[in-house]
Known about the structure:
- There is one protein chain.
- By secondary structure, the protein is α/β, with parallel strands linked by helices.
- It contains 8 helices and 6 strands.
- Strands 2-1-3-6-4-5 form a 6-stranded mixed beta sheet, with helices on both faces.
- Helix 1 packs across helix 5 and helix 5 packs antiparallel against helix 8.
- The N and C termini lie far apart (about 40 Å).
Amino acid sequence: xxxxxxxxxxxxxxxxxxxxxxxxxxxxxxxxxxxxxxxxxxxxxxxxxxxxxxxxxxxxxxxxxxxxxxxxxxxxxxxxxxxxxxxxxxxxxxxxxxxxxxxxxxxxxxxxxxxxxxxxxxxxxxxxxxxxxxxxxxxxxxxxxxxxxxxxxxxxxxxxxxxxxxxxxxxxxxxxxxxxxxxxxxxxxxxxxxxxxxxxxxxxxxxxxxxxxxxxxxxxxxxxxxxxxxxxxxxxxx
Length: 238
């Protein structure tokens, strides 16, 4: 392949990123009050992005009817988000980078191992100075019809603003018919309940919806999700 063609192909992800970012920024200027944006970052500097691919190890999370496991999908989207961040000189903190988790021998039952994992994630996130958490998940419902994204937020200051911003971006760019709104996360979610930093949990789609499951399997759709998530993070502090 000619060198010129290789260079042009290498630029495609970068051009796509800036296109998506420009659309998001333009949309956010119309929807996010300046006072809300300012309140998120006043006096805190640039926050460190922590990416949490939900589940993993013995906890596979939700499973689609055709066998797609949530934990692997969460990890794929999270790793793409990390790679996009690296293109711009940022190195996010990851709560896991593989499907395998090294549980201590002291934890014998599956329940105890899951609890240990959640406690380890909380400790790691809370140890990061000036952090902001993005936790990647997938949804599931008994009815096969629901689809689309949903962003939930924690209790720390700035979480709601970040969630509303991210949810708006995902809705406008991926599924404009989505009528859901960003909402507070349930107190039953251990990870979100015990964090001190701004935190959002993004349900990227419904594994119970066959059409959306096929989208979520797609490498290109995962990249779109990652681009929007990272662009939203950029807006969060800029």
